[in-house]
Design goal:
Elements (H helix, E strand, L loop, with lengths): L5 H14 L4 E2 L13 H13 L4 E4 L5 E4 L2 H11 L12 E5 L5 H14 L12 H10 L4 H4 L14 H12 L3 E3 L4 E3 L1 H8 L3 H15 L5 H9 L11 E2 H11 L7 H17 L3 E6 L4 E5 L24 H7 L3 E6 L2 E6 L1 H6 L1 H5 L2
Antiparallel strand pairs: 1-3, 2-3, 4-8, 5-6, 7-9, 8-9, 10-11
Length: 356
């Protein structure tokens, strides 16, 4: 954290705890004023934070002014004021109740392959044909039950399975596909740049996109989403949800949220993370809800937070997998996809693979 005056540091900590990276009306800043500061000193502290890029001023069309900690800065601010240190579960068996599915990067890849091979045609009203969306949904490990607590379906795609809506929206947000006149089409240049990334880079980028595109309206739940990728939680180690919620209550990050509602919001997010292959949920013999990161734990962008080294790259790089999809048929077992040579691929596609 850059050098700030004591007044600015105190105001920043109060803004973070109360609002996370959610915008709030400028006049509400007065409620966060420390007793040791007058109104003029509060305004000077906020001006200092704005100049440092730690608080932004936004203005609505009708003139309302809003303050906000930029989402790209929230993880760093959290680490500065609310560093989380929790002990993992030891000496007790944890039964997995929500296993991790295939990683989201792999599921997005499967979506892109489906669009390239089978197409995703549009209806006259701009929706997706039910038959094609159903076939794509059958290929995706993530299910409605993983997503319903976090994502809402679009009225334009009310007949489309929620996993397809989410995966397609992510592909559109990343610029990997675009809506043509009659069907969705791949954007080859950006697609190639995306496939050149390793899976840990894809995972981290996807997590950041989800944080900003689908933010929690409640500051407490937004705090949770930024806390989870912190160094406090090591992949493969189980942590109790109650210890995380207690930490949030003790530090003020719960932002006054009732404990039961906060727990349900946390569970919905963790179930979503399980559907994306990043997290697992389990239960101890004493009925304690637990969670753990898989090897797909995301890393927030540089400058936001210092985290452990990314997970190893996949055994098959995505550019090679893209070529293999043209000549091999694939199947999924648990969290992994396996490839086998198909008769048509052997007859027509093998020379192309040999030349790559």
């Amino acid at each position: 954290m850059m050098t700030l005056s004591p007044s600015a540091l105190e105001v920043l900590g109060r803004i973070c705890a109360a609002y996370a990276d959610r915008p709030f009306a400028a006049e509400k800043a007065e409620r966060l004023r420390p007793e040791t500061l007058c109104r003029a000193e509060l305004q000077l502290a906020i001006l200092e934070l704005r100049r440092a890029g730690l608080v932004e001023l936004r203005q609505k069309v009708w003139g309302e002014q809003l303050f906000q900690i930029p989402p790209r800065q929230l993880a760093a601010v959290q680490q500065e004021y609310f560093a989380c240190k929790l002990e993992p579960v030891t000496g007790e068996h944890v039964a997995v109740e929500w296993p991790a599915e295939a990683g989201l990067a792999a599921q997005l890849f499967r979506t892109l392959v489906f669009i390239r091979q089978e197409g995703l045609p549009l209806t006259a009203k701009g929706g997706i044909h039910k038959k094609h969306s159903g076939r794509l949904a059958a290929l995706l490990p993530v299910q409605d039950r993983h997503l319903q607590g976090v994502f809402t379906g679009s009225p334009a795609y009310e007949s489309v399975p929620l996993p397809v809506t989410v995966l397609l929206d992510l592909a559109l947000t990343l610029g990997l596909v675009r809506a043509g006149d009659k069907a969705y089409q791949l954007e080859q240049d950006l697609l190639q740049s995306w496939l050149d990334l390793d899976e840990s880079q894809m995972t981290s980028h996807l997590y950041s996109v989800i944080l900003e595109r689908y933010p929690a309206e409640e500051p407490a739940l937004q705090h949770l989403r930024y806390l989870l990728p912190s160094p406090a939680f090591m992949p493969g180690s189980w942590y109790t949800l109650s210890s995380l919620l207690s930490f949030m209550q003790q530090t003020g990050l719960a932002a006054g949220k009732e404990a039961g509602i906060l727990q349900q919001g946390c569970l919905s997010w963790l179930q979503c993370m399980a559907g994306f292959g990043w997290c697992e949920l389990g239960m101890t013999g004493s009925a304690e809800i637990c969670f753990r990161w898989t090897g797909h734990k995301p890393v927030l962008p540089p400058g936001c937070c210092r985290l452990p080294a990314p997970a190893p790259v996949p055994l098959i790089p995505y550019p090679l997998a893209k070529q293999l999809e043209g000549v091999l048929s694939s199947s999924r077992i648990l969290r992994y996809w396996f490839f086998r040579m198909s008769p048509t691929g052997f007859a027509g596609g093998l020379p192309a693979v040999r030349s790559c």
